[in-house]
Amino acid sequence: MIRRHSAKGEWIPSPGQWPVNPQEDVPVDKNCIWIDGCFDFSHHGHAGAMLQARRLGTELLVGVHSDDAILENKGPTVMTLKERIAAVEACRWVTKAVPNAPYVTSLPWISHYGCHYVVHGDDITSDSNGEDCYRFVKAAGRFKVVKRTPGISTTDLVGRMLLCTKTHFIQSLQRVLNGEEGPGSEEERKITGEAMKQRIRDYATDSTGLAPGSDVWYWHASRSVKERRTTQSSPDARRHSHSHHHPGSGSTSRHNHAVKEEKGTFEKFVSGKGPQPGQSIIYVDGGFDLFSSGHIEFLRLVTRAEEEAATRRDWYTEEAKTLRISTAGSDYGPVFIVAGIHDDEVINHWKGINYPIMNIFERGLCVLQCKYVHAVIFGTPFSLSNAFLTTLPYGTPHAVYHGVTSFMPLTYDPYAPAKSLHIYREIANHEYQNVNAGEIVERIMKGRAMYEERQRLKGEKGVGEEAVRRREEMEKEQERQKERRRKEVEGQFGL
């Protein structure tokens, strides 16, 4: 096989060897934009760069470096290339992902795919020799700079995992957005809150990055209702009827008692396109911490299941398509997915240690950028209730989807109300089933020495053996607490 090289020594694939189509060169178009990077476990900083890049043209191609190239130039990756590609392709502003893109951005590569400009943040990225990765495209006048998203990076997230910090938690998203909570002076908090509101609006745009896309809501209810199992009956009556629980269970058992369900109130943050005529309203929920291929594959499979159901009801016939276009002005899909996101304290109540690694604002932006999601509701309950499901902004959903497994053993079913309404659906285990926040943290811990070296090269202080020992002990204690809680609840209900 003949290997073509440029004058700079870069390998240029021959037709049939390019990682994705097209295999033949296409005309370079100034509206076709290229961005590249590692995109290790996906966060909203990556999405922010893609959004800004997409707004500069009409197509966005994303080059994703190989695991080997990243190891040589930067250090080990947390996620595999396949997992990173899945995350990039799920971003609503991305036209196409290009795997195995050169670590030093190559003019022949971007030109082959028809891209004129390369976009990157306002930081310097160097290769293993300390040279600028974008030196060739800069010299050609084909480089554009966008603002780096403040307050988030892969390095920062790794630090949170290793140091077990909770300083990133948000007690009340609404208060933070209104400038009433958080660090700094009153004026600084208001500026921060307005910037966060604007970011939510930006991430709620459609595939062009310019027009309204997703709806964004917040659900106001008591913390106990968001955190614990709910019931339609009086909680006092239930406690009396189960008064035979173990006398030594004390405050922890009271902590696990069911509480009276609440309708709560829904406050709209952003108005998007909203559901279109004939679409099925689908509800999913979770923490979506360290939003990754496991979450994305679940959402993709939910979408596919609903598209298959739509096929059976003749959604894709020419007659149905013509009717939708004449009514709405353009065609649209059969599903409208609403994603409920739990508060930080709710997740920490159930998972402990310093979960979630991303706070509710960060997790919300990650979900908003996903092309499978059409609306986001912040602050949703861990355990569903009839009151919540039947008062959703779009009415009772056509279906509630969840996976077949849970991250912890429960003595009750958080999805029982959806099952009683006959709207519960399950997605079977899939290729990325185990890729979640816990798995990602475990990968970091196993490769701690390599990740610390990566941190050191980026100017970060090493965390040392003591920090690792502390996290491991916290994880063991969390397992002991789960077991104690399970036994106490079983005793409470005579199970």
Automatic annotation (TrEMBL):
GO CC annotation terms, alphabetical: cytoplasm
Region called Disordered, residue ranges: 1-20, 227-257, 456-495
Pfam family, one: CTP_transf_like
Keyword terms: Lipid biosynthesis, Lipid metabolism, Nucleotidyltransferase, Phospholipid biosynthesis, Phospholipid metabolism, Transferase
GO molecular function: ethanolamine-phosphate cytidylyltransferase activity
Pathway(s) served: Lipid metabolism; Phospholipid metabolism; phosphatidylethanolamine biosynthesis; phosphatidylethanolamine from ethanolamine: step 2/3
UniProt enzyme class: transferase
Keyword Metal-binding carried by entry: no
Keyword Signal annotated: no
EC number of the protein: 2.7.7.14
Residue intervals of the Cytidyltransferase-like domain: 35-158
Gene Ontology biological process terms from the UniProt entry: phosphatidylethanolamine biosynthetic process
InterPro entries: CCT, Cyt_trans-like, Ect1/PCYT2, Rossmann-like_a/b/a_fold
Protein family (similarity comment): Belongs to the cytidylyltransferase family.
PANTHER family for this protein: ETHANOLAMINE-PHOSPHATE CYTIDYLYLTRANSFERASE
Name recorded for this polypeptide: ethanolamine-phosphate cytidylyltransferase
Organism of this sequence: Lepidopterella palustris CBS 459.81
